[in-house]
């Protein structure tokens, strides 16, 4: 299977709620601003406990860039009318499975000392 198709399969599994059959290794590792989850078993257990936050999302995929054994996807996740999150994720593969994901997205408000002074509407 082509790596780009594997990434697309990842999103399809989430959109259909079929997270128990994600194409991930037993040693799968997911790192995000929330923290790191080690192992398929722990990852799936976390999802099960928080299905309301994980399921029912749709994904507007903007880019998927593929190299020899890794890929990067930039997308917007949406859940209902109120939730939208812009994400960039790096996928690392072993065989025809995803072994590791490193996700980048903004969670929370920007600290006052990090806000720009007099920002222009478009840079």
TrEMBL record:
SUPFAM superfamilies: NTF2-like (SSF54427). Signal peptide: none annotated. Residues 7-98 form the SnoaL-like domain. This is Nuclear transport factor 2 family protein.
């Amino acid at each position: 299977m082509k790596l780009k198709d594997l990434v697309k399969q990842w999103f399809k599994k989430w959109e259909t709620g079929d997270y128990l059959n994600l194409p991930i290794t037993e040693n799968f590792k997911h790192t995000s601003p929330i923290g790191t989850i080690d192992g398929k078993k722990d990852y799936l257990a976390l999802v099960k406990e928080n299905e309301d936050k994980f399921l029912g999302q749709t994904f507007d995929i903007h880019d998927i860039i593929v190299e020899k054994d890794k890929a990067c996807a930039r997308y917007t996740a949406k859940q209902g009318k109120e939730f939208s999150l812009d994400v960039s994720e790096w996928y690392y593969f072993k065989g025809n499975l995803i072994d590791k994901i490193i996700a980048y997205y903004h969670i929370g408000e920007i600290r006052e000392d990090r806000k720009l002074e007099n920002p222009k509407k478009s840079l």
